[in-house]
Each structure stands twice: as C-alpha cells, then as structure tokens.
Amino acid sequence: MKRILMFLSVFVLLFLNVTAFAQSKKVVDRIIELGTTDNQTMNHLDVFSNRFGGRLIGSDAYENAAEWAVSKFKEWGMQVEMDYSGTLPVGFNRGPWFGRLLSDNGMQLHFATPSYTSGTKGVQKGHVVLEPKSQEEFNRMKGKLKGAWVLIGGDNSGWPIDISVKADHLRDSIILVNEEIAKKNNEARRYNYSHQGEAQKEMLPLVEEPALFYRQMKEAGILGIIQSSSNPIRALYDRKNIDNMTFETLPTIPDIKLDEHQYAIIEQMAKERQRFELEFDIRNHFKMGPVKYHNVIGIIPGTKYPDEYVMVGGHLDAFDVATGGVDCGTGIAVAMETARLIMESGGKPKRTILICLWAGEEFGLLGSKSWVENNKDKWAKISNYFNRDGGPTLANSLSVTEAMYADMEKICEPLNNINPDFPFTLSKRETSTRPTRAGGSDHAYFAINGVPTVSFGTADPKGYDFNYGEIWHTERDLYNMSIPEYMEHSSVVTAIVTLGIANLDHLLSREGYYKEEKK
After folding, report:
1. What is the pTM of this model?
2. Do 49 and 392 contact (CB within 8 A), yes or no?
3. What's the rounded Cα separation, in Å, for the pair 365 and 315?
4. What is the pLDDT of residues 352-395, one digit of tens each?
5. CA dist 216 → 134, 343, 365 (Å)
6. Nearest to 145 by CA among 229, 214, 209, 245
C-alpha cells in the first residue's frame, strides 16, 4: 500500500509539473503571437511622446501621462499604485517659441531655452550688444543695455546661467579680480608706450565668466542673454534654483541657447556695430505649487508568492525641449507593452510583477530612490529589477552569473522562436562589485542595496546607425528617432523573461552576483 501511495504521489507531482509546463508554454506562445501580430509598443510611445510630449515632473504633461498609464493598467486588469515620491515648489509648462533676425540678411533663429527659465513678455524686439567683460566696459555701455539682447561667452552645456545669490557673489569676486588685472594692464600699457623699442610688459588676460555682469545687466533693463550652442541643441533645467523657487521669485530674464552658426553671424554683426534687431517670442509658463509627483506602479499579483517580486521599469519623466520619444519613451513603452502582453496572454505569475514608471529620473533619480528607501522590506524578495533607459535598440542578450544560468537558460529558450533575424544570446559573467554611489539611471539605488539588476544587452543588428548621444537631452529626442521593429521585439523578449522569472519555484540566486563585502 505504501508503494502504491508513493507511486501515486510521484505521478501527481509529475502530472502537475507537466501541466504547469504546458500552461506556461501556452502563455509564452500566446505572448509571441500577440507580440508579432498585434504589438502595441509604438502606440504607447505615440501617446507618451506625441499626445503629451515632454514630461517634466511639475508639468501638466507629466501628470496627464501618469493618469493615462494608470487608466491603461486598469483597463488590462492590473492593480495600480500612484506612489508619492516628492513635491516641487512650482510647476513649469513649455509653450511654443520662435525668434528672428531682423536685418537685410534676416533669418529664422534656431534656439532653445532650459526648463524653469523665463520666457519673454510677449513678442519682444531689441538691439544686440556684446556683454561687458570689465567694470570699465560696463560703465561705458550701461545706458545701451536697456532693451538689448546680450551675447554672452561660453558654450552651452544644457544648463542655464546660474542666477543664484551664491553665483552673484562669485561673479562679484571675479569682477574685483578683473579690476586688479585691468589696473596692471593699464600700467603695462603706459610703460610700453613710454618705452617703445625696449622689452615690452605682457598684458594679462581677464578671468572669463559668461554673464559676468548678470545682476547689473538685469538691473539695467536687458531683454535677455544669448549663448552659443552646438547642434543639436541641448536644454536641461535650472537645477540650482528649482528647490528654492517660489511663484514670487521666478526668473525674469530669458536664457537663450542659439545655434552656433547663427550666433557667429550675429556676433560678427555686433562687433561691426551694424544696426539690426532680434525678435523673440518664448512661452515658458509657470504654475503655482506645491506640485506633487508620483511613480506609477502597475501590479500583476503573484498567485503563489505574492510577497516576492520581479520588477520592470523606465522613467516616465522626460525633458521638454523635445518629446521624450527616446529618453525614456523607449523604456516606458516597452514596460507598458510587457504588462499588456502578459495580461492579454492570460499569464498568472507565481510571484508579483511590478511595472514601474518612475518620476524625476532626470532630476536625480528621485522616484526610484524614493521607492527603494520606502520599501526596504522588499529588497531581499526582489528576484530582479530590469531597467531600460538606453534607446530604441534591440534587446538580444543577457549576461548572468553561474548561479542564475540554469534557470535563465530554460526561461530564454523560446526567445529564438520569435524572429530569426534577431537571435538571442545568453552568456555567463563574472561576479561584480556592488556600487556604492548612484549611477545614471533608475537601477542605481536597487544595485547599491544589493538587489540584482540584470539588464538586457542591446544592439543595432540591422545597422540603422542609431546614436544615443545625438538625441540625449536635445531637441531631437522625438518619436521618429525610435526603431519600431527593435522596440516591438524587445517588448516580447521582456515579457517572456519577466514572466519566466516570476514563475520559478524560487527567487533567482544571488550567489556570486556581488562580491562579498570585506568586514
């Protein structure tokens, strides 16, 4: 009788395993079918980048995008959490902008302004001057500064000119240094004039600082400052003042980053003291705060291990000089489609899957950092966090530790049945050192705290010549910079691997993932 019962229990166990395998294969096959015949990745990206556009935290576009994502997760039958992660003292919405050179060789101007900087007061037209480099120059031209656009030195890095009180103190100290240099140069000039034919004293260069007389020029009534920018134009935000900004202390002087080729033309015209004007209309709008921002967490509850997790994420926020079509539309669109494919295929994961659309990555990983710090009890229970924030390239490889390899080999087996043009490679990697400082994307605080952050390797196998540096934080971060077939395939791959890890009978092993810390 004992032998019969033992045989029956083994039979039942084998039957359940075979049944579970058959169900899992059925779901994976359905994911592949949906992903190759009805893939919605680019539709999600279209909504995020073309319906809402640039999605700074603190903007209406961000809030609208978050609400839309919530509605889609609910539509697909998921649970949703709007996870509060911070507050900004004021909000910012970018409107249209244009500029023109008004002269015999007039032209439309190609420029941008950083977020959280001032727009114009309607259409504003004025003459152009070169910025003063010394107190003597400022005194000589201060009457001409009223109603002028001022060309300043330096090259645009994306950040606005620092207009904080601390920056004013620094500029004042440089002005004093330059006054001393100017005195020595005047002495040298007099000496050289009276000792012609003898060894001449060298003239000392002034300390260069863009917008050195910013406060004084503002008080004199300038319309705005203009700085040269390489192409494509990069525009970030006023990070040094945003936390202390109030609706009563908003910036008032436009900070314009102008195409370097046009800047050179206008600079030469100004040096020649030609008579011409520039006209700008820049609609940078603010809204009263405080403005809260949230992570959007889509939840597919686990059926067997609901308190264990597999996480997939990208950042919902994006700079607004373009539309965030790549950074990070290519991450959140894939994350959204991963969720849809799992839900539409009938996937019932054993452990909970979290689809995370993070807030404030561009402002310093604010959303993901907040979630990690507020969910310490979950750190040991996260099998892996997949982050996508590198552009529209193809997810075609994984590199895992020896301890993970057997599990991942089974999970990744179907990936070579999706598209023969896109083979998938699984390889082993060595143990890595756990980072101690945050990196450049939302995986950082997970990794710092020991959570595995295995990410897909990506490539451009068909040679579309994608260049992330070309679009990163620039005006070219648009929907049409994406590569649909790579994006759609990456969604299918991510859905299959995420579901596979969620359906393991155990968490992915962390053995050998990070080097043991020395005590």
Report:
1. 0.93
2. no
3. 9
4. 999 999 999 999 999 999 999 999 999 999 999 999 999 999 99
5. 12, 61, 36
6. 214
Q: 325 to each of 132, 289, 321, 358, 426, how far by Cα in Å?
A: 40, 27, 11, 16, 29
- For residue 300, give the 3-state DSSP assignment: strand
pLDDT of amino acid 17? 46
User: For the domain with range 104-275, which CATH number is right: 2.60.120, 1.10.760, 3.50.30, 3.30.70?
Assistant: 3.50.30
Which CATH topology does 30-90+290-502 take?
Aminopeptidase (3.40.630)
- Would you give the end-to-end CA distance of the chain in angstroms? 56
pLDDT by residue (tens digit) across 466-504? 999 999 999 999 999 999 999 999 999 999 999 999 999
- The alpha carbon torsion through 109, 110, 115, 117 (nearest 10 deg) reads -30
- Cα–Cα distances (Å) from 240 to 108, 268, 363, in that order, read 31, 32, 11
Q: Among positive and negative, which fits the CA dihedral 160, 163, 168, 169?
A: negative
Q: Return the structure tokens found at 53.
A: 């556009």
DSSP conformation class of 56: -
What is the chain's length? 519
Q: Which secondary-structure segment (H or E) carries 145?
A: none
In the predicted structure, residue 20 carries a pLDDT above the cut 90: no
C-alpha gyration radius of the chain: 29
Domain-by-domain residue ranges, the chain? 30-90+290-502, 104-275
pLDDT at 170 over 70: yes
Closest to 338 measured CA to CA, from 456, 486, 491, 493: 491
Please name the amino acid found at residue 419. Answer: N
Residue 24's pLDDT is what? Answer: 86
Residue corresponding to tokens 């012609």: 196
- Return the amino acid letter for 67: E
Nearest to 45 by CA among 324, 426, 345, 362: 324
Annotate 206-266 with DSSP letters as a single string: PPP-TTTTHHHHHHHT--EEEEEE-SSPB--B-TTTGGG--TTS---S-EEEEEHHHHHHH
pLDDT of residue 261: 98
Give the pLDDT mean for 162-176: 95
Nearest to 110, CA basis, from 475, 477, 472: 475
